[in-house]
Predict the 3D structure of the following.
Amino acid sequence: MTTPDERNELAAAIARLLMDRAPVASLAAVADTADGYDRSLWRELAGYGFLGLLVPEWLGGAGGCLSDASVVATELGRQLVPGPFATSAVAATTILVEAAHRGSAVARIDLLGLVEGTATATVLNAPSIHRDLTVTARPDGAFVLDGSVEIVVGADSADALIVPARARGTAVILRVPSTDAIVTPVTLADVTRRAATVDFAATRVASDGVLLTGDEADAAVALASARLSVALAADCAGGANAALVLASEYAKTRHQFGRAIGSFQAIKHKLANMYIAVDSAEAIAHRAAVALDEGEEGASALVLAAAAHCSAAYVSVAGDAIQTHGGIGFTWEHLCHRFFKRAWLNEMWLGGSRSLEHAFAKSLFTEELVGA
C-alpha cells in the first residue's frame, strides 16, 4: 500500500504529464480522430508504468494497487483525457491477472501488450447493457458464441474481448480476438469515450481461450466490476473538481452590474455546495479503493456508496458549472458541456445513482440481518 506522500507524488507526476501532453484545450482535436484517443500518449502512459499498476511485477507490471490506479483515473478525469483506461487498464487487466495467476498463457501474453501500451482489451459485462448471448460448450473443451452485446465501452478499438458468460449453469470467462467478432461502433454523447455493439456468429473459442471457470470466474468478474466502479468514481471526483475550478475562475472574472458575479450571494452558495460535493467525492472514492486493496469487511458496500455519491456529485457539479457560466456553458464547444456529458455517461455506466443507492441500502440491511 502506498503512503499519502507517494500518492501525492504520483498525482503530481501524472498531472504534469497530462498538462504537457493532453491539455483540456486539445480535447476536441483528439476526440475527433479515428481512434478517439491519442495512441502516442497512451504509450507514454505505459512507459511511466501507469497502465500496469494493477499487474504484479512478475507479470511485467508495476506491482501497484487500486489506490494507485484511482489516482491516475482521477487525473485523467480532471483533464477529460479520452482513452480506455477504466476498461483496459482496470477491468480487463484485473481478469487477465487472475487468469495468469492460474496458468493461462494467453492471459500473460495479453497482459504484456496492455502493460506496454501496444494493445487494449475490454470486458463485455456491465449492468446497463443489453445481452443476448448464447454460449455452447463443446466436448473438446472449446466454446461457441452466438448473439450480441450492445454498447460495450472500449470495444471499438480493443484487441481482445473478455467475455464473462454461463454455459450449462457454470460461469466461464472467454477471451476472443476482436477480429473474430463483428464490432460496430456506436456514437455516444460523451466524445471522450467510444463504444461498440459486438456480434458473434458461431464464433469458436478454443480451450486455450478459456481464461477462468466456476467460482474463480465469478470471483474475478466481481473483483473487476468493483475495481471498475472505483476507477469511475475516481474519474468522477477528478472531473467534478475540474468543473468546480472552471466555475470558480469564471465567477472571479465575469462581471455584471460592475461586480464580479462571484460576489453575488447566489453564486457563492452554489460554489460552496459544489466544493462540499467535490471534497466528499474525493474522500469516498479514495476510501473505497483502500477498502478493496486491504480486503476490508464491508468493502462492497463502500464501493456502492462511492459509485452512487461520486456519480451523482459529478452530474450535479457539472450542471452547476453550466449554470454559473450561463448561456455560454450550454454550447457544445465549451468545457462545461464536455464535463457534463462525461458525468452523465459515468452515471449511466455505473447503473444509475438511484439503482446504486438502492443496492447500497439493501447491502446495509442484509448485513444487519446477518449480524443479528
Residues 216-371 form a domain with the Butyryl-CoA Dehydrogenase, subunit A; domain 3 fold (CATH 1.20.140.10). Strands lie at 121-123, 131-137, 143-153, 160-167, 170-177, 182-186, 195-205, 210-213, 255-256, 259-260.
